[in-house]
């Protein structure tokens, strides 16, 4: 495994790679969710490149950016089996005269976009840069960040990136909590409380499979479950169209994306589930 810290150094290594390339972009502090994407890439490509970059432009608060967990030594040990890891410097990614930003319009607007202004502009811009630097055949993203997937798919289509976007399932801990680098910031009691997101989504999923099709009723069920946990402060719950990500008002026809952002103490967690009827 080779570690590159400048784009020039990376490009020299990239030129020597023959065959298909899978890219796994990350912000580091790796867990099994990230590794599931690495494994998927390794199964589908001749070479796998991972990037570790805590992208400052996608954070809404400097506190969140500063508190974002980092452990490069641990990350590199976990990435042992891949070809190249690119760890660019913020000063090279965003030199002082940086002027170009990518805005993906409609799919960026609801859900996370509504509560984190500028977040998806930061995501789309950094991912476009990484696509141009790495020039992968395929790029791997987690369903954990469902709206991010929709934003990137739209950008890839609109800007004609010759890249296949591959989406990996949400990896969860045994108790159902979605793996996330941010979980490291939870204390023991908060970590126990964090299970309420998955409980709330699972409850709504069960109701859907028992025939509940009213999106408002599903939102109410999710909120009622979250209200059982005193440490949880809800930012939003959503039942949205799986493609447009617009809130559903009418009975669910075929499928829906159930999602939520919830503070557990000072840590903002997100989770989601797609419900779909069989047949
Ligand atoms: P991050 O480092 O949080 O930016 O995540 C890097 C990639 O890993 C993104 O595509 C995430 O959606 C994905 N990811 C994060 N958590 C999980 C998870 N629990 N399961 C699967 N993929 C995940």
Q: Describe it for me?
A:
With 279 residues, this protein is an alpha/beta fold. The protein contains 11 helices and 9 strands. The chain has helices at residues 7-15, 32-44, 62-67, 72-78, 90-93, 111-115, 119-134, 146-158, 188-193, 195-209, 215-227; strands at 2-4, 21-26, 47-52, 84-86, 138-142, 164-168, 232-240, 255-264, 267-276. Helix 2 (32-44) links the parallel strand 2 (21-26) and strand 3 (47-52). Residues 26-27, 33-34, 36-37, 141-142, 144-145, 168, 170-171, 178-181 line the site of adenosine monophosphate.
Helix and strand layout, with pairings?
Blueprint: E1 2-4, H1 7-15, E2 21-26, H2 32-44, E3 47-52, H3 62-67, H4 72-78, E4 84-86, H5 90-93, H6 111-115, H7 119-134, E5 138-142, H8 146-158, E6 164-168, H9 188-193, H10 195-209, H11 215-227, E7 232-240, E8 255-264, E9 267-276
Helix pairs in contact: 7-8, 10-11
The structure holds adenosine monophosphate.
The site of adenosine monophosphate (AMP) has 17 residues, from helix 2 and strand 5.
């Amino acid at each position: 495994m080779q570690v590159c810290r400048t784009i020039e150094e990376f490009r020299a290594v990239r030129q020597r790679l023959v065959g298909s390339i899978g890219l796994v972009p990350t912000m580091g502090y790796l867990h099994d969710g990230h590794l599931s994407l690495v494994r998927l890439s390794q199964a589908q490509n001749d070479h796998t490149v991972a990037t570790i970059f805590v992208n400052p432009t996608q954070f809404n608060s400097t506190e969140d950016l500063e508190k974002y967990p980092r452990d490069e030594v641990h990350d590199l040990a976990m990435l042992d089996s891949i070809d190249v890891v690119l760890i660019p410097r913020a000063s090279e990614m965003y030199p002082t005269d940086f002027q170009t930003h990518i805005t993906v319009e409609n799919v960026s607007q609801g859900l996370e976009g509504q509560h984190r202004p500028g977040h998806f502009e930061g995501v789309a811009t950094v991912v476009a840069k990484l696509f141009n630097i790495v020039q992968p055949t395929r790029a791997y993203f987690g369903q954990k960040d469902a709206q991010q997937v929709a934003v990137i798919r739209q950008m890839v289509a609109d800007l004609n990136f010759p890249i296949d976007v591959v989406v990996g399932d949400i990896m969860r801990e045994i108790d159902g909590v979605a793996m996330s680098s941010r979980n490291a910031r939870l204390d023991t009691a908060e970590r126990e409380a964090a299970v309420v997101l998955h409980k709330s989504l699972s409850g709504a999923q069960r109701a859907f499979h028992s025939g509940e099709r009213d999106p408002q009723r599903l939102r109410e069920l999710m909120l009622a479950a979250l209200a059982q946990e005193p440490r949880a402060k809800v930012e939003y719950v959503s039942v949205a169209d799986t493609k447009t990500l617009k809130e559903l008002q009418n009975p669910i026809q075929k499928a829906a994306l159930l999602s939520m952002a919830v503070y557990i103490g000072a840590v903002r967690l997100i989770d989601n589930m797609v419900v779909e009827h069989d047949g």
